[in-house]
Amino acid sequence: MAQSYAYLDNTGILHLHSLESEASKHGKYVGTNLEHDESSFPIIGGVGVVYYVHTDKAYINGNKNDGKAS
What pLDDT is recorded for position 61? Predict the structure, then answer.
């Protein structure tokens, strides 16, 4: 599995990027083995999820306004 780099955006949403140089542009980041979809969101259980760190909730294929809570 390829390594990716995880970081939080300014609203507390988790993103992943395959390039360390891109992740570092957002401040703190960490290497991980999580895969990500084309929108930079982690893939969990075979689907892309939008994860909000401040509420500890994830939404399948969309954000909290239009996604299904996982």
Answer: 75
